[in-house]
Amino acid sequence: MPSIIFLGTPEFGRTVLEGLIDSNYDIKAVVTQPDKKIGRKQVLHQSPVKELALANHLKVYQPAKLSGSEELAELLQIQPDFIVTAAYGQFLPSKFLQSAKIAPVNVHGSLLPKYRGGAPIQYSLLNGDKETGISIMEMVKKMDAGDIFAQASLSIKDDDTSGSLFEKLSVLGRDLLLETLPKFLDGTVTRTKQDEAGVVFSPNISKEQEQIKTSMTAQQAHNLVRGLNPDPGAYILVDGKRMKVWQTKVSDEKTDLAPGSLVTNKKRFAIAFADGTVLDLLEVQPTGKKRMPIRDYVNGQGSKFKSGEKIIDD
């Protein structure tokens, strides 16, 4: 089987790597991000890709920065048939990409040229898209700008979050990659140049983007909650304190209340947003608390607010 250097970090990458392993590709090396300290206790965690690689006795490299590293010097000596990346999280040096005998290939979570960049799945939800997909593309020096070898689309459901889309797209990406790689070998692979006029970027989510603002409509706030679930999570400021919002529903009703006002806390917790729209909070996490269904919040802290009162700060 053809030889591969694989680069990836999260569950998305793990699913793709698992497909390559199960298909008996010759995985010469696996490159993933360094172990990270997570949580209040700062426990050191391995990436999902590293865990799978070690379980399959594959050689793992974890440079903090691949460019100029000792690890890169070793990897350049391998000269695999393919270099395959799936949510790795670093730019790759041109000389490394050029060391692939056949092609450097990326499994990208969007229908390019829409959503080049590090957060394509999140932006498809933030923007309320009805469709996303996978692009199998050639890696070049310019970010996500290489020729497209294959694409497959996926409908976005109303209850999808970035977590559910990551899971669905990882499977779609795995299957599309395994369908595409043999085409390089039998000469049937095709190339399609990206239309630069259609380029849309999806930069990594900033801290400022995590806050739900009252200038948003209920639909925009709902999309933000979906797009940032499960990581990093969207939040509102209630009485000056952050409250994470994990699940919401756009109400059919309209209100004359000012954006940020409590519409009702009777059996539900509904807040007014821009253009008279109303958003029901369904699952929240007050500061210092665990995630909870809204009924638990209403029976506790939420009961102190009065209908018509402005409770969200910007």
Describe it for me?
The strands form four sheets. The chain has a seven-stranded mixed β-sheet, sandwiched between helices. Strands 12, 13, 14, 15, 16, 17 and 18 form a seven-stranded antiparallel β-sheet that branches. The N and C termini lie far apart (57 Å). With 314 residues, it is an alpha/beta fold. The protein has helices at residues 11-22, 48-55, 70-78, 94-97, 120-126, 162-186, 218-227, 294-299, and strands spanning 3-8, 26-31, 36-38, 43-45, 60-61, 82-86, 103-108, 114-116, 131-138, 148-155, 200-201, 234-238, 241-250, 262-264, 270-272, 278-286, 292-293, 312-313. The protein has two domains: 3-201, Formyl transferase, N-terminal domain (Rossmann fold, 3-Layer(aba) Sandwich); 208-313, Formyl transferase, C-terminal domain (Methionyl-tRNA Fmet Formyltransferase, Chain A, domain 2, Roll), CATH 3.10.25.10. The chain has eight helices and 18 strands.
CATH architecture of the largest domain: 3-Layer(aba) Sandwich
Please, what is the oligomeric state?
A: single chain
CATH topology of the largest domain: Rossmann fold
Arrangement of strands in the largest sheet: 5-2-1-6-7-9-10
Distance between termini?
57 Å
Largest sheet: 7 strands, mixed
Shape: elongated
